[in-house]
Design brief:
The complex is a heterodimer of chains A (250) and B (464).
Chain A: H1 2-5, E1 20-33, E2 36-44, E3 47-49, E4 53-57, H2 64-72, E5 79-84, E6 87-88, H3 94-103, E7 105-108, H4 120-130, H5 138-148, H6 164-176, E8 182-186, H7 194-211, E9 214-219, H8 222-228, E10 231-236, E11 239-245, H9 246-249
Parallel strand pairs in A: 4-9, 4-10, 7-8, 8-9
Antiparallel strand pairs in A: 1-2, 1-3, 1-5, 5-6, 10-11
Helix pairs in contact in A: 4-5, 4-6, 5-6, 6-7
Chain B: H1 3-16, H2 18-55, E1 61-66, H3 94-101, E2 106-111, E3 114-121, E4 124-133, E5 147-148, E6 158-162, H4 163-169, E7 180-190, H5 197-203, H6 210-214, E8 221-236, E9 252-255, H7 256-261, H8 267-274, E10 285-290, H9 296-305, E11 308-311, H10 314-356, H11 358-366, H12 371-414, H13 427-454, H14 457-462
Parallel strand pairs in B: 4-9, 6-8
Antiparallel strand pairs in B: 1-10, 1-11, 2-10, 3-4, 3-7, 5-8, 6-9, 7-8
The chains are: A alpha/beta (250), B alpha+beta (464).
């Protein structure tokens, strides 16, 4: 499993032997909507190298979020294969997918999705509880994650007491606390003003550089994608449209 | 997720919707309370009946008589031909008494001494029934709540009055203790053989009677009026049984040894004299006390094998137990109905919680929670409500039982009847009620927990 190749330090997280952190092979995801069949993701093959920062670009309904959910193991493909560190998610049981979400990937969302009744510290500790990390180890892991996003002073605050940018940084800390190898971000700046959005993007870039963490980010902001990502994959109507280095596509 | 983390998260969730969860828990508590109250009422009444009957001394006693006297128990009289010389009816004499005392599990054998007579108290005559009480009766509980004290010795010239008779003597029954009364009775005195020419005349037709063959000629007897002064030392509510025939009839109780020493003329004396029996004393019945009610059946069978007739309350006890089993079952069903309704409250509360926490469930799954974790989280919440409701319900059930007892006793007091305890809560009942509450809650949480576990995380995360 991916967990076996991970190091114990956030700063030393690496990928796998063949160089790909995650890749898909002709993956499709279809939904039945009434009598119509919606091809949310249609025959998409992509490969993301370890330590790469990839932006999934596209308009609303293009299938980029569905593809991200498939990479996260939150959803199962109708056909095709998804490999995370060469483990096919399509073949995994729901228990194994939960383990993948807990140990291999970290997720951040546009709406932050912090639990409102918990403090920042409790929110960040939650993935450690789910991963059954020893109690004695948890405070240090929480502190390490919140210091990385510069929120150490706000540990006892509830989400409602934090600004939008702080909430997204808290969500980032929560995504990092289990030391995943892949960070999946679904429109992380969608609910933020441009200044705060840029700050979050710089933080993601810093995490990618310093931790060599693979990042797949869904966005419809072409400018930011070009500025911060190594590579941009564009989708339209569930299909892959273009793929290339960010400076080429920009 | 580890149990401690699950418990902490569940406790947090329960605190979040404190009003709704408290009302649900209260619903369970009411259900458990009704269950406990019903059960404690059933068990309490059963114990009350058992205690009262145990105090009668009937449960650990076998009443023995001769086969010839079995008609006295309501059965058809046995034809004379059956009582042939090949299998003579055994006499209940001193020898038989010793043999019975040696039977396994038998602790005591004593005769029934009970006779009607006149009592003189403060220069007024009263007719009553006197019963001899063995010293062992002190242990069987009938005298636990008596006023005054038990006999100071086996030959103490003391009397204990049954409450009804005590009321005949004085309205202030307590004031009787320490006063004297005089027992007037007819003592049987044996006549020398020459004073009984009638004996020889009647011996002839009975020549074939097995007992008459080799026994010396029986003497007659005369009756001599006697008096015995007794000190009243106690008043008792119930009388311990000293025989199957006289249950509840003894109104003046004296030590058995004293009663035997009085040599009171008994109805059997006339019969024994006519049968030409010797002067050896025989008993109408003997009471055999057994060390445990469980041993009654075995002792009864052994005694029957010895050629005596027996009677015990065992069959009546079995019927009583059957009645209480049915009674308890009915109470249990009614009590369970309330708990069933309460369990629907749990289903409702948890289904509501799923709707409210849909997005949270999605987040938990996105962060790595397995379906099993979500299911267990809801189970722990249901179990916690069940456990808390169970504990609260037991306390409420106990209070209801107390209230019923207090109410009943208030009524009994107005009727000048002694207080009773109609409800009884045992530890097994507490454990059962809390256990049932816990497991019923878990069962009620099964559907919501399974529904929450099956939630699609992508759809749950989209939920607003």
């Amino acid at each position: 499993m991916a967990a076996s190749v991970r190091n114990n330090s956030v700063g030393e997280m690496t990928g796998t032997s063949n160089g790909f952190a995650v890749r898909t092979e002709r993956v499709s995801r279809q939904y039945a909507m009434g009598e119509a069949l919606v091809h949310a993701v249609d025959d998409v093959s992509i490969a993301v190298r370890t330590g790469e920062f990839v932006a999934l670009l596209g308009s609303s309904g293009s299938g980029k979020s569905t593809l991200l959910n498939l990479l996260a193991g939150l959803d199962r493909p109708t056909s095709g294969a998804i490999y995370a560190h060469e483990q096919n998610l399509a073949d995994m049981s729901s228990q194994q997918l939960a383990h993948h979400r807990s140990h291999t990937v970290g997720m951040v969302f546009q709406a932050f999705n912090l639990l409102p009744r918990m403090t920042l510290e409790e929110n960040v500790e939650l993935p450690l509880r789910l991963a059954e990390v020893e109690r004695a180890e948890r405070p240090a892991r929480v502190r390490e994650a919140v210091e990385r996003v510069s929120l150490a002073a706000r540990l006892s605050h509830r989400p409602s007491e934090l600004s939008g940018g702080e909430q997204q940084r808290a969500a980032l800390a929560r995504a990092l606390v289990n030391r995943p190898t892949i960070l999946l971000a679904d429109e992380p700046t969608g609910n933020l003003d441009s200044v705060t959005g840029d700050a979050i993007m710089r933080l993601l870039q810093e995490i990618n550089r310093n931790l060599q963490m693979t990042i797949v980010m869904v966005t419809h902001d072409k400018v930011r994608a070009a500025r911060y990502a190594h590579r941009i994959i564009t989708m339209r109507d569930g299909k892959l449209v273009t793929e290339g280095a960010s400076d080429e596509i920009a | 997720m580890k149990l401690r983390d699950l418990t902490e998260l569940a406790a947090r969730n329960l605190r979040e919707a404190v009003l709704r969860n408290s009302l649900t828990t209260l619903g369970i508590a009411v259900g458990v309370a009704s269950l406990v109250a019903m059960l404690s009422l059933g068990v309490g009444l059963q114990e009350l009946a058992s205690t009262r009957l145990s105090r009668s001394g009937l449960f650990d006693a076998v009443f023995v008589t001769t086969q010839a006297n079995m008609r006295a128990f309501g059965g058809p009289p046995r034809p004379l031909a059956e009582r042939s010389s090949t299998q003579p009816a055994r006499k209940l004499d001193e020898e038989a008494r010793k043999q019975l005392a040696e039977v396994k599990n038998v602790v005591e054998v004593y005769p029934e001494v009970r006779f009607p007579t006149e009592v003189q108290f403060e220069d007024k005559p009263y007719m009553t029934t006197v019963a001899g009480i063995p010293a062992s009766a002190r242990r069987d509980g009938a005298f636990d709540e008596m006023k005054g004290s038990f006999f100071s010795g086996p030959e103490a010239k003391e009397a204990i009055l049954q409450i009804e008779f005590a009321r005949d003597l004085s309205k202030q029954t307590d004031s009787l203790i320490g006063k004297d009364l005089v027992l007037r009775y007819a003592e049987k005195q044996a006549l020398p053989a020459e004073d009984a020419p009638f004996e020889r005349a009647v011996a002839k037709p009975y020549a074939n009677h097995s007992d008459a063959d080799d026994a010396p000629a029986s003497g007659g007897f005369s009756l001599v009026p006697r008096e015995l002064r007794l000190r009243i030392i106690g008043v008792v509510e119930t009388e311990p049984a000293t025989g199957f025939g006289g249950f509840g009839r003894g109104r003046l109780l004296i030590p058995l040894q004293i009663a035997q020493n009085l040599r009171i003329a008994q109805p059997t004396d006339m019969r024994e004299m006519l049968r030409g029996n010797s002067g050896k004393p025989t008993y109408e019945t003997l009471t055999v006390r057994v060390n445990s009610p469980k041993a009654v059946q075995g002792v009864e069978d052994t005694i029957k094998g010895m050629g005596f007739g027996t009677f015990s309350i065992l069959d009546a006890t079995k019927n009583m137990m059957l009645f209480f089993t049915v009674f308890d079952s009915l109470l249990l069903i009614f009590g369970s109905l309330a708990l069933t309704v309460a369990s629907l409250g749990i289903v409702n509360t948890l289904v509501m919680a799923i709707l409210e926490r849909r997005r949270e469930i999605g987040v938990l799954k996105a962060l790595g929670a397995a379906d099993r974790d979500v299911r267990r989280l809801f189970f722990v919440e249901a179990g916690a409500m069940g456990l808390l409701g169970g504990v609260l319900g037991v306390a409420m059930g106990w209070l209801i039982g107390r209230a019923l007892t207090i109410g009943t006793n208030a009524y009994l007091k107005r009727q000048e009847l002694p207080a009773i305890d109609i409800s009884s809560i045992h530890w097994w009942m507490v454990a059962l009620a809390i256990g049932v509450s816990f497991f019923v809650s878990l069962a009620a949480g099964m559907y919501p927990a399974s529904r929450a576990a099956r939630l699609n995380p992508v759809e749950a995360l989209r939920y607003e």
